[in-house]
Structure formats: structure tokens, C-alpha cells
Amino acid sequence: MSGEVTLLINPVAGRGRGRRAAEPVAGTLREAGIAVRVLVGLDADDALARAHEAVAAGTGALVALGGDGMSSLALRAVAGTATPLGLVGVGTGNDIARALGLPLRDPRAAARVIAEALKRGQPRAVDLGRAGGTWFGSVLATGFDSRVNDRANGMRWPRGGLRYDLAMVAELAALRPLPYRLRLDDGPWRELDATLVAVGNGPSYGGGMRICADADLGDGLLDVTVVGPCRRSTLLRVFPRVYRGTHLSHPVVTTHRARRVELASPGVTGYADGEPLGPLPLVAECVPGAVRVLTPGPA
């Protein structure tokens, strides 16, 4: 493994914040005596291929600049290897960086954390989820929230966050419980109707929505949040509580923990770290200590 650190950039993350963050991050690392190489991904596939190449070549660390999409790509490149990962959260969501206690939208502060962690030489080992052959760091979403993503991704207008707002309104109008089959570890299959089922390695998705608020990146388990059948008025009342994580105490919500979660529901797509995995059924597993992350403080 070399002493050179590789910066992986999404130039369009956070409306260009990823591109603008490259210079202060590289400068801060170089001031700390760390050699830096910069890679710019042309698209998701290209970024992942470049990241794999850097890890295979023995880079001293892979540092991803962007949001959860870029963080998720970088996780896939380093998972199961000895290469440590640094995250500079300058995207829209930043849920993976948030769960790790990293500075958000402050490139220099994030770079200082990375430099200090490299000098300590003790990266923190954290768990990852794996579903459909894909690693994820935060949450696997299914049901109402994944249907909002499906609808928004199929809309050509408007662009930006408003598209998701309109998609949510449309899905609220069509709200109905979905039939699920759920199995935890080696337990029995459960038949249930639910508005959504979320499987969390980390606590939040969507830019701070703490859907699996008690999820711990180091406990070797996945947290499962089930929102049962509910009316539109109930969902609208509960929704604001998700940002504080207090929705877990609502009677319509139940929670579980397991190492392995099997989910099936017809016509439902799974999204992990905000990226589509494909239709259910899916099997999600927790892989303890799958990635080594450069975080604040001692390991």
C-alpha cells in the first residue's frame, strides 16, 4: 500500500460542491504532508471502475467527495479490503458521513479529520449491509418511500427537489398498504401489510430522516422499521417525527433487529443508499467490520 491518497470526485454532487471541494481538500491534505492523486468520475460506472483500480493499485486511502451516491460507490470499492475510506460530505443527503460523525459541507474540516486519522493509523472498522450483491452503508428502503423514488425517477419535469415533492404528493393520493413477506434470520416467514419497510445499517436516509433511528454501525445487526397500514392523515402526522427519530414510539411503527433480513412484496423496488437495487424479493445481510473508515478521535 502506498502513502498516496486518492480523491474520488463527483463533479455534479451538491450542484457542483463536489468539484469545488477538491481544491481545499487536496490542499489541506498536502499541507499535512500527504501526497494526493485526484480522480474524476465521468459517471457512476466510470467512478466505480476508477475507484476499484486505485484500490487494486495499493492507494493509501480512498477519499470520496460528494453525497451518499459517491460515498456508496466508494464503499463498494473498499469493502472487504484493507484500504481505509475517507468521506467528504458535500452532497445533498450525506447520511453515511452523518452517521459516522464526520463534518458536513465543510471540506477543510473533513480533510483535517482524514489527515489526523491517517497519521494515527487506526481507522475505525464499521459494518456494512449487503443486498443483491451490492454493499450499502445507510438504509435499504422499500414501500412508500421507494415508490416515491420510482415515480420521481420517471418524471422529466421539474428538476431538483421539487420533483420528489410532487412525487410524494402523487403517492400520498394513491396510498395503500402493501402485502409483504418478512423473515428475520432463521425465524418463520411473516405475512403482513405495511406502508413501508426500511432496513438500516445506519440510522438515516434522505438527508437526515432517522427512519432506523437506533441503528448502530458497529453492532453487527440490521435494524428493521415497519410502518404498518395507516391513513394519509396519520402518515402526515408521523412524518415530521422521522427527523428526530421519535416516530419509533408511534403505535403504527414496529422495529426489529437481525443479521439477515428477507423481504418480498410484488411490484416494489428496493433502494439502498438512494440507489435502485431492483425489485423485491431481496435478502439483506449485515457484514460486521466490512470497511475501515477515517473518523475523528481514536479508533
TrEMBL record:
Keyword tags: ATP-binding, Kinase, Lipid biosynthesis, Lipid metabolism, Nucleotide-binding, Phospholipid biosynthesis, Phospholipid metabolism, Transferase
Organism domain of life: Bacteria
Gene Ontology molecular-function annotations: ATP binding; ATP-dependent diacylglycerol kinase activity
GO biological process: phospholipid biosynthetic process
Gene3D superfamilies for this protein: 2.60.200.40, Probable inorganic polyphosphate/atp-NAD kinase, domain 1 (3.40.50.10330)
Residue ranges occupied by any DAGKc domain in the UniProt entry: 1-135
Entry GO terms, CC: plasma membrane
Entry keyword Protein biosynthesis: no
Pfam families in UniProt: DAGK_cat, YegS_C
CC cofactor: Mg(2+)
NCBIfam families tied to this protein: PRK11914.1
Family: Belongs to the diacylglycerol/lipid kinase family.
Protein name in UniProt: Diacylglycerol kinase
